Amino acid sequence: MKKTLIALAVAASAVVSSSAMAWNPGGAGGSFDIGGTLTPEVKGTPWVVKVGGMTGLNASITKGAESIDVPVTNDISILGIRTQTAEAFPGQAGISPRIDYHGNVNLASGSWGKVELSLPVLNSETEEKIGTLRTLMQTGGGFP
């Protein structure tokens, strides 16, 4: 009797913990629900980035003029990249910053540390190109 009772208890526990999937004769299907939480893995790099800008570059231009000089009295920061800490870090795949100026920087021009930057000047209302800004850009950190 004791062995029979143990066998019945094991069989009952197997039924309780079994899967809820079952065949339904003549059934047309049903719904399938699945749930959970997806947590993205945070992959950090040792870099911090600062993007600059400048407003108020106003100047008068004579009608029909083909060029104009706009005096700039302070440096204009365009892009800065540095490490988050002053400590050295081990190199690894995927952490080398890649900067694409979309052909607007001529890396072969100028001297070491200064390159030519050319940017389109657009009409602020129509976005139509009305000219080209050309200047020397100071660089640091080297290029491959």
Approximate shape: elongated
How does the major sheet shape up? Answer: 3 strands, antiparallel
Spans of at least 5 consecutive residues whose pLDDT stays below 50 are none
- Mean pLDDT, nearest integer? 78
Helical content (DSSP H or I, runs of 4+): 10-25%
Structural class assignment = alpha+beta
By DSSP, the count of extended strands is 5
The Cα radius of gyration reads 33 Å
Strand content: 15-25%
User: Order of strands across the biggest sheet?
Assistant: 3-4-5
> What is the tally of helical segments?
1
What is the terminal-to-terminal distance?
83 Å
Q: Helix and strand succession?
A: HEEEEE
Protein name: Fimbrial protein
Pfam family, one: Fimbrial_K88
GO cellular component, one term: pilus
Signal peptide: 1-22
